[in-house]
C-alpha cells in the first residue's frame, strides 16, 4: 500500500566501551564535535546498519536486494537493470559515455523495484551505465551524543605475528602491540524524515516502512564486533501526520523528546543515568506519537 502520511522520527541509541563510528582521517578515533565535545555518528553509518539488517533478514533477494554493499561493483548492478527491461543492446558502444539512451527512466524504476536501499535512501546510479538518480523518501541526520564524550585510547597486544620474518625479529616473544579507541559511554540522538511524495516516486510503501522500523530497532543486535562494544537502540519515537504535507514543523516535534542526565549524575555510564522526557500533551492537531521502543 502506498504511503499517504508524512513521518518524522527520533532515534535514541547508546554505546558502552566501544567505538560507534571511527573517523578514518583521525586514526579511527570516535567522531567528536571539536567545539562541544559531543560524539557524532554519521547518517551514512546508520544507513549502513539498516542495509546490513535488511540484507540479512531478506537474504538479498528482490525486491529487497541491497545496492550499496561490500564488494559491490555498481556498474554491474546497473547493467542488470537494462537486462531486466530487455534493452541490453543500449549498453553497447563507446565506454567513455554514459550508456542508457532513452531507457534511463525504465532502468531507474527497475532499480527501485529490486533494491530496497535505492527506493528507501535513494542513490546516484549514473556512474557509467546510467540508471539515473533517485532521491530517497527516507533521510536521517548525524546522531549527536546528549553529553560530551571523552574517547579513550587503549594499548592491546597480539600473541602472534603475521610472517616468519616478523617472528625472527622478535627475541623469543611473538607479542605485537596495537591501539584501540573507545567511548566509555554515550547516549546518541538522531532525527529522521519520511516523505510520502518521494515514496510514490520510488515505490517505497507501507510494508517497506514497517521493515525500516524493525531495522532501526534491531540493527545493532546483528552488527556486533569487538570494536563497537555494546550498542543498542534505546528509543524510537515516530510522529505520524494525518496527511502528506504534515501538520507541524519537524523541529517542533523533535523538541518533545528530551533526554537529560538525572540529577546528581556527574559522569553517565549507562542508560539508567538518563531520563527521557516525552511531551505528549497538546500534540498539534493531526499528529500522533507512537513509541516503538
UniProtKB/TrEMBL annotation:
InterPro entries: Cas7_Csh2/Csh2 (IPR006482), CRISPR-assoc_prot_Cas7/Csd2 (IPR013418). One of its GO terms (biological process) is maintenance of CRISPR repeat elements. NCBIfam families: cas_Csd2 (TIGR02589), cas_CT1132 (TIGR01595). This is CRISPR-associated protein, Csd2 family. It comes from Nitrosomonas marina.
